[in-house]
Amino acid sequence: MSGGAGLPGAERPIRVLLADDQHLVRTGFRVILEVEDDIEVVGEAADGERAVSMTRALHPDVVLMDVEMTGVDGLEATRRITAPGDADGPAVLILTTFDRDDYLFSALRAGASGFLLKNGTPESLIEAIRVVARGDGLLAPEITRRVIATFTRPGTGATSVAGGPAALDELTPREREVLVLVARGASNAEIAAHLHLGEATVKTHVSRVLAKLGLRDRVQAVVFAYEHGVVRPGA
What Cα–Cα distance (Å) separates residue 8 from each residue in 5, 13, 39? Predict the structure, then answer.
């Protein structure tokens, strides 16, 4: 496994902070990630409080965050790291052994850009870090299905991630098309092929959609689109 972003003449490596209360787990993650040319582990935190302070000091691109830690847990740490007014802060990727819906939805509402289980492969972890580092939200496929099912079920009391239907009026027809494709899980390359656009143009459209709807990333865009009827399950 070897990335290319860290090679001479290329962009700088993705800076990653590890937050987990188990030393052996952090060591394992470090071993997996530091093999990659385009990833650099810049620090380790054993609890949420330390993760927040180290994030402010080290300015990582991605925080790999455990949920259950002593003191300040990963969910509260995520809320502090992704607090309003810190839109340029790092992406938080939640990684946990606990396959629980309450953790999942709490993590999404806290501002996490991705959620993975620890039973995944090293390759999936590496790719997840690359995805959230470039500004794309990420959920494992089985988790995406649960998000859609929960946020589109009547009477669930799911909390809206943004303003509401009125915000949709701010979108151009093209931006609305892009939102629909994002909600269906399409990548920028897939959207570009579908709409016969360049990837750079698609990225601009996605950025404008997020800004107009007051959303942090693509994960929130998926939730918003299903909550407000832009797309429907099975459509």
Answer: 8, 11, 14
Q: Is 32 helix (H, G, I), strand (E, B) or coil?
A: helix
Domains along the chain with CATH numbers = 14-149 (3.40.50.2300), 161-227 (1.10.10.10)
- Give the tokens for residue 46: 């054993």
Alpha-carbon torsion 78, 94, 153, 144, what sign?
positive
**How far is residue 77's CA from residue 47's CA, in Å, rounded to a whole number?**
9
In three state form, how does the secondary structure of 122-138 look? HHHHHHHHHHHHCCCCE
DSSP 107: H
pLDDT tens digits, residue range 147-156?
A: 666 655 554 4
The C-alpha atoms of residue 154 and residue 178 are separated, in whole angstroms, by: 26
CA distance 27 to 22: 9
Do residues 206 and 188 lie in contact, with contact meaning Cβ atoms separated by under 8 Å?
A: yes
Sheet bearing 62-65, strands edge to edge: 39-45, 14-19, 62-65, 91-96, 114-117, 138-139
DSSP string, 33-53: HTTSTTEEEEEEESSHHHHHH
Q: pTM (2 decimals)? A: 0.69
